[in-house]
Amino acid sequence: MKTFKTFLGGVALSVALASSALAAGVELNASSTGLAMQGYDPVAYFTVGEATEGDWKITSVYHDATYRFASAENKEAFEANPEAYLPAYGGYCAFGAAMGFKFDGDPDNWKIVDGQLYLNLSDEIQAKWEEDIPGFIVKADANWTDIAAKSPAELQN
Fold first, then answer.
1. Does the UniProt entry include the keyword Signal (predicted)?
2. pLDDT digits over 118-157, tens only?
3. pTM to 2 decimals?
4. Pick from 39, 82, 29: which is nearest to 59 by CA?
5. What CA–CA distances, in Å, run from 26 to 40, 80, 127?
6. pLDDT, tens digit (0-9, with 9 covering 90-100), for 3-60
7. Phi/psi at 136 (nearest 5 deg)?
8. In angstroms, rounded to a whole number, what is the distance separating the alpha carbons of residues 93 and 120?
C-alpha cells in the first residue's frame, strides 16, 4: 500500500510540475496535457451558439495546444482561420484579465462580443463582467500586454 501511495504522490507531483511548466511564459490556458478549453469546441460557440464538448477523435493542434471539435466541419473551419475562433486572453477568464490575473476560463461561462469569444471563471464572475463588458474588455486588453507571458502563480504574488 505504501508503494502505491508513493506512486500516486509522484504522479501528482509530476502533473503539478508539468502544469506549471506549461503555464510559465505561455499565453494559453491549457491543461498539463496541452488540452485547450477543457476539450470544448471553439467553433461551436459561433455555429450553434452554445458550449459544446469536442470529440477526442477530432482534434487539431495550434500553438502547441490541442483543440477538440464536435464535427469534422468545425475542425476544418478552425484550421482555415484559427484566430477567428480562439477565446480572448488565451482562454483565461476575461474578468480576471481585467483585474490583472489569470484564472481558468469555464467553457460554460462565455459570451461572443464583436466576433470575439470570451470565457469567464464562473456564473458569478460572468454576471459581474456583464455589468460593464466594454469597460472590462478595455481593462483586460491593457493588462494583457503585461500579464500574457506570466504564469497565473506569478500574478498572485
1. yes
2. 999 999 999 999 999 999 999 999 999 999 999 898 888 7
3. 0.82
4. 39
5. 20, 23, 28
6. 434 333 333 333 333 333 344 345 788 888 899 999 999 999 999 999 999 999 999 9
7. -70, -35
8. 4
Residue with cell 494559453: 28
Please work out, in degrees rounded to the nearest 5, the angle formed at the alpha carbon of residue 99 by the alpha carbons of 93 and 105: 5
